Amino acid sequence: MLRRWLILTTLGFAITGAAAVVARDVLFGPADLNRVRADVIPRLAGELASAGFELGQPIFIRIFKASRELEVWMMKGGSYSLFKTYEICAHSGELGPKLKEGDRQSPEGFYFVTPEQMNPNSRYHLSFNLGFPNAYDRAHARTGSFLMVHGNCLSIGCYAMTDAGIEEIYLLAESAFANGQPFFRTHIFPFRMTDGNLATHAGSHWIEFWRNLKDGYDWFEDRKVPPAVFVKGGLYTFDKNT
């Protein structure tokens, strides 16, 4: 009885910040990936088929911080089509990029994920590492580590999904890798990069950074194929993705 009281009391005090993550880690821990596959793949495969996709097709992810949306796009006929939009359960910080380790800010920018960045043993119910800091972040002396998309609906700099959401996203990525996709791109924006939204935020300290992000956003909007991303002169630059 005393042990149960201690657990409940700890959980009660641990509703925000690092303590919340520790409490959830202790109580939940890693997912059983074999069980997840058995439970989710039959239903997910049916959803994919209804939308004209197949499990294993290449994927591309976009994240919008302000609206808490994660989009999964899939290759169909030489370009990408939207398969599903997932609600982001939690992220931390404000609009704007991550600057330094410990600032509790979720990143913005252009990242890619390789099979090595997938973590089936995550304490946050499956995860993948976004690859922060990328070349742009390093060029601007930005620091940070272990920035993830994961489950458990708790965030200190990561993008946290529901467990059900990360299960589907993880399996889509895992299947794409198994079918030969070497990496998938993840583009993270503060909001949808429309002219109107940029005008609304024209007074922000980050407006020039966001205008640079808009160049990559527009590339995909125009072509429905994500660009190859480079860093030149401290700016993101974009070219045909071959």
**What is the CA-atom radius of gyration, in angstroms?**
18 Å
Number of strands: 11
**Global mean pLDDT:** 89
Helix content: 25-40%
Largest sheet: 9 strands, mixed
Order of helices and strands: HHHEEEEEEHEEHEHHEE
Strand content: 15-25%
Strands of the biggest beta sheet: in what spatial order? 4-9-1-2-3-8-7-6-5
| Unreliably modeled segments | 1-27
Helical/strand content category: alpha+beta
Distance between the termini: 62 Å
Count of separate DSSP helical elements: 7
- Global geometry: globular
Topology:
Layout lengths: L1 H12 L3 H11 L5 H18 L8 E6 L4 E8 L2 E12 L18 E5 L4 E2 L7 E3 L5 H5 L8 E3 L8 E3 L1 H16 L5 E6 L5 H6 L6 H17 L4 E5 L2 E5 L3
Parallel strand pairs: 1-9, 7-8
Antiparallel strand pairs: 1-2, 2-3, 3-8, 4-9, 5-6, 6-7, 10-11
Describe the protein:
The N and C termini lie far apart (62 Å). Helix content is 35%, strand content 24%. A hairpin with a 2-residue loop joins strand 2 and strand 3 (79-90). The strands form two sheets. A nine-stranded mixed β-sheet has the order 4-9-1-2-3-8-7-6-5, with helices on both faces. Strands 10-11 form a two-stranded antiparallel ribbon. It has 242 residues and is α+β, with helices and mostly antiparallel strands. The chain has helices spanning 2-13, 17-27, 33-50, 135-139, 163-178, 195-200, 207-223, and strands at residues 59-64, 69-76, 79-90, 109-113, 118-119, 127-129, 148-150, 159-161, 184-189, 228-232, 235-239. The longest helix has 18 residues, at 33-50. It contains seven helices and eleven strands.
